[in-house]
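A note from the maintainers: we've had questions about how concatenated examples are separated. There is no special marker in the raw files; a new sequence line simply starts the next protein. For clarity in this README we add a label.
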Amino acid sequence: MKTLILIVVGVVGGIIGGMGMGGGTFLIPLLTVFCGVEQHIAQSVNLIAFVPMSIVAIIIHCKNKLIDFKVVPYIVVPAVVLSIPAAILAKKLGAKALSVYFGVFLILLGVYQLVVAIKRVVNEVKKRATTGRSRQGE
């Protein structure tokens, strides 16, 4: 039964990751909550699963000309350099602390996404109101 749950979790994580929503955002909690996998192992699995998903995503984005190669070094170099101390830190932290930090990260990410969405809606409403007034004045 556990094997079936692991397969379902892998399929769900792969589908969500393939849709560009960040499969790890769901894969790690699914592995830890439903499969009883330790946080360190769940994050390792996520990193391993991320490699093929990111390669496919890069190929698709290149074909669709959605990558601005001028900014790539400014993102890739710090990410690679900082991944080393982050991995060392993650190894030194206990599973409980790592789970708490990951939970806080997800909450902050959710709040950020909510604020961005609200700002977008407010700007759209303002834009429509402004456009409506200028048309009424004509």
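[label: protein 2]
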Amino acid sequence: MAIYEKLMGNPFVDAGVCGICEWLGRSVQPEQITTDDLEKVVAEVVPIMQPFDKKRPQAHGWRNWVSIFTTNHPLTNPSKKGDRAADFKEMLLSHITNAENLGQSGDCVGCGRRDANTWLFRTGVPLTGSGTLRNFFPTFAEGVGYCAACALAIQLSPLVFAASGGRFLMLHSNSWKALRTWSRKCLGDVRAQQLQQEVTGCFNPGYANPRNGLFYMTQEMVQFQEMRPDEDASMQFYCFTNFGQKPELEIFHLPAPVFRFLRFAYQSEFKTDWGKIILSGYLVNWTKVKTEEDYKNRINRVYENLLEGRSILGFFLNRRARKPRGNWELLSLYLKEVRTMEKSRLEKIKQVGDLIAECIRKSGRDRRLLQLERAKSYEACRNVLLYIIRERIRQGSPEPLFSLDDYVEHLFPEIDDFAATPWRETRDLLLFRIYEMLHNWLQEQGFVDFDEDNASDADDASETEPTEEN
């Protein structure tokens, strides 16, 4: 049996195992790791993890330890004299000596496949209570039981953390490939620090806002070929600090459909348009922005909505410029992958949008478009469609705008909660298609006063817009 295997289930253990594998080489899998490999990793990694000490001639070193394993850790304990890195190495080698192969069962919290032979609390596993508060742990034990192999993996897990404004982002996923690509990005930075002899600690992409930071990391991850578009990889991001005075934990869930959509959105054919949609989500005064640093850590409503399961359809529209962000193909990908919208409904709304655009062009006015843009209730939206139907009859259009079945099944399908009726979704989709078809014509006719592609012109996110129903 092996010492480790893929996706053992504990976030800190899986992170550490990924870090070990990446350090040994891209092709190395957990089942191949031996005790000799572990000793090699420890010998090479411990010197890098030497804690920062401003008294040393070259004032550099790992700065993050006190917020990961508290002040009682061998690398951070101020009461210990001598070589802290040597004490840390001794502890890791002790874990290797006591490491056993995986069995069929056991009471280790990390793997459940071996018996626990070491007891850990916050110093050994972040956010795991205090050894002195025995009522925190099951059966009033002094800590939580881990096997030596899992305890070792946890100690090496900081290799694949991403620093974020005094806290750390750690990925856990149902996809081993997702964990490896995340680890490759983080550990690659640590190796670069080693080569440059400027070790500072965990990979720091410069995002104090952890939500923006995790989306930056997903953007980096989709560039690796190992991440296939057909793989359903759901992800949990643990944002934490184990700092003694104020430990914190926040968990973000990125569903598999969202990550699958992002892998399409960041492809070359959509990347520019998707970037405009992301920029439209920032709450910032763009007239004062000079560099990315001026906005990268501000709240981004696109990211917030994707994490919280809310629609981002409104951000595909630049209403002031009467212009779409992206094309119908990108919008369709989002609606099908994330919002699970049926293709038949999308096609019908597209068809109706084309007919409305033709009607507006023939009229030579933007009156009906204005009415549709200003519709703030289901009744108002329905009335605009009635006006357009009448106008098309006056224009001599040979075919109806839509059938009764189309209206009931595709434009305004019945749902249980009428207060959450998808009428706004239908209105915004129609506007998107009309803008896509008529933007140039609207400019030529003088119906667009504002035509800068400015990110500050996102108005509402559709689902949060106040309505008459609620």
